[in-house]
Structure formats: C-alpha cells, structure tokens
C-alpha cells in the first residue's frame, strides 16, 4: 500500500464519490424529517392560498366605492365562509386570513376607516392596495413544491405540512462506527498517568457524526495490539456502513491499521493527501462498506471530518454538499514556512468583517478551535498572503 500516490483533497472527494453506493430509501413521519434527504419530488395537493384571502383586518368592498359611505353586512372571521356577496354601496368587516366575499376586490385597513353609524363606515385614506392574496398566487394544485434531493430544513417541514405530505420518502441514514486506536489513550473519566492522554478525538467524531444525523455506534479505545484491533475493526465494519478509525494510520511501528484494512478484504484507494492537517487520511471500500482512517491528532481528524467525511456521508444520501466557503478580506498578513500542501487554519471574523488568524500550533492544538468561527483555506503553493487579500473561509 505504500506505493499509493499522494493526492489532493479534490481528487480524494472524487474517488470517494465514485465508490459511494447510494443508501436505500424509507418513508418517515414528516415531523422527524429535519436534516433528512428527500428521495422523492413533492407536489401540492391544493392551491395556496386555497381561496382569495384578506391580508389585513379591515373592510372588504368594491374599489369603485372607496369614496362612499358603505353599509356593513357582516363580520367575517378567519376560518368562516362569508354569508353575503358584496353589492354596490356595501362592505363586510373582515379579519386577516379570512375569505374575501364575492363581489369585493379591495380590503381597506381598519386604520384608514371611520365608523359613521353602527352599520356604516367610510374609507378615510387617499389610496390603498387591494390587500387581497389571490387564490393560488403562491402555489397552484399540482405544482412542484420540493425537488428530489432537498436537504430538509425547518422551512421545508412547513411546506410538507402545508401540502399534506406527512410520510415523505427519504434516504436512510448511514450507520457510522467510531474506533479510537492508541495504547496511550484513556477515556475522559480517567486522569492520565505518565505518557497517557485522554481520548478526545473519538468523542469529537461522535459529535460530528451526530450533527449529520448519522446513526452512531461508538466502540471505544483499542490498544495498539494487532489482534484486538483486527477484531474490533471487523466487528465495526460488519455493523456499520462507515467505520471511522482515528490514529494508527501513519508509518510508525504500531501503525498497523492499513494492513488490517486489507486483511479484511477492503481495497485502499488512497492513504495520503496534500492537505494539512490530515496528510494520512485513508479511504477504503468493500462493496457498500467503507473504512476511513483519520490521523490521530484531534485537529487533523476534526478538519478531515469537515472537508472529506461529511461530503462523503451526504454522497451516500445522493446529495452534493455545497462548499459554503465565503470570500473575505484578510486583516493581517500571513506567512508559512512550507507550501507543499493546501492548508486549513482556524480564524475568527472581526467587527469589520475581516479574517483574523488565531494562535495555532498545529494539528494537536484543538484548543485553538474553541473560539474559531471558521477555518481559512490556503492553497497549495501559497506561502504568503497579504493584508487585504481575499481568502476563503468555511464557517463552523
Ligand atoms: N515518520 C513520519 N511520522 C509521522 C508522519 C509522517 O509522514 N512520517 N506524519 C505525521 C502526521 S502529519 C500525523 S497527522 C501523524 C498521524 O499519525 P497517526 O494517524 O498514526 O496517529 P497517532 O500516531 O496514533 O497519533 C498522532 C497524535 O495524536 C494523538 N492522538 C491519537 N489518538 C488520539 C485521540 N483519540 N484523542 C486525542 N489524541 C489522540 C496521539 O497521541 C499522537 O500525539 O503522524 C505523524 N508522524
Ligand atoms: O497530516 Mo498531520 O494531520 O498534518 O498533522
């Protein structure tokens, strides 16, 4: 496997996308659908609004009657059909959201009215809009309201509710198994002794995977022992679509994860990226099962999840996650010693909406990210950026 060439992040995303076999679909209750990927188009079974609807509390009348004293026929609350059609010289008091009576083409607002008698009113303004939302002006019966492949957010849940689509078809969620490797690791409850460190990475990955709504299985820490590591990775790959393994993927004497991946019959498609942090990101597949090996350093693992694992998870659900990087101006000049890899570094946005870099010591320094608003991209080959230069920032 050492003959694998080092490739760019974009090449890695392309390879992974080619290997991503789509997950099956399922029908779920629409209230549980936020964050899910729609696997069907949704059409409206009604027009919206379903009737000519008043946009104001006021009086419904004929526009040609606006200058006259008008006889009030009734009060029309929302949810109740009007009893009378409007004739010349007549109006009905109407509430916002109520059905406009036949014969009326205008609603003038309460604030522009004067009661002349208990059942007579006149318009006191100089001009008014019609204040009527026409039947079907937003959506007509049979219109497409949500396209296949929509990532469902709160506003889409409102649409599903409005058109009565209570069991939308969505892509199944991937099952993700998470393993941390390393004999130096102890779980957070334990006070590390000697050369031990706490397993922060595994729990960070669990949280990141949960944010994508994936179904997460946490397998804990495995020591740098071949047989135990083999057993745990085998179990995780049998029980999950994606197995994320942090640590043990570089070239140290105890980095035997790559050999185990191959022993399990998986094909390694790449194991080195021209990305900092995350040089040792590994991607392997066997049919519809995938293993992603992430570097043990917490920042490497965090960034690789954001830029590589997350888009891959969405590919499995047939969705091209957009790269929401924003072009912003750099507040101060930036230099780096080596430019052989593209790099991501933590930044914040100041009050002038400029990008400020945060003190950052490298891929073990996860603390640098506690106040990061995003991370900035430095292209491969760039060792210097000037103040005021436009950089791309991905928000967190
Ligand atoms: N001779 C070389 N050595 C290294 C290279 C290289 O190219 N040649 N690359 C370096 C880079 S870059 C990285 S990144 C690391 C990747 O190493 P591994 O993925 O094998 O990870 P480990 O060696 O197991 O750990 C690295 C580092 O991170 C700490 N760690 C590991 N797991 C966790 C965890 N769950 N929570 C918190 N911290 C964790 C671990 O203790 C190490 O300090 O390799 C370099 N070496
Ligand atoms: O590739 Mo390592 O993740 O840069 O520190």
Automatic annotation (TrEMBL):
The keyword Transferase applies. GO terms for cellular component: cytosol. InterPro entries: MoaB/Mog-like_dom_sf (IPR036425), MoaB/Mog_dom (IPR001453), MoeA-like (IPR038987), MoeA_C_domain_IV (IPR005111), MoeA_C_domain_IV_sf (IPR036688), MoeA_linker/N (IPR005110), MoeA_linker/N_sf (IPR036135). SUPFAM superfamilies: MoeA C-terminal domain-like, MoeA N-terminal region -like, Molybdenum cofactor biosynthesis proteins. One of its GO terms (biological process) is Mo-molybdopterin cofactor biosynthetic process. Its cofactor is Mg(2+). It comes from the Bacteria. Residues 177-315 form the MoaB/Mog domain. Its EC number is 2.10.1.1. Pfam families: MoCF_biosynth (PF00994), MoeA_C (PF03454), MoeA_N (PF03453). Keywords: Magnesium, Metal-binding, Molybdenum, Molybdenum cofactor biosynthesis, Transferase. Pathway: Cofactor biosynthesis; molybdopterin biosynthesis. It catalyses: adenylyl-molybdopterin + molybdate = Mo-molybdopterin + AMP + H(+). GO terms for molecular function: metal ion binding; molybdopterin molybdotransferase activity. Catalyzes the insertion of molybdate into adenylated molybdopterin with the concomitant release of AMP. Belongs to the MoeA family. This is Molybdopterin molybdenumtransferase. It comes from Sunxiuqinia elliptica.
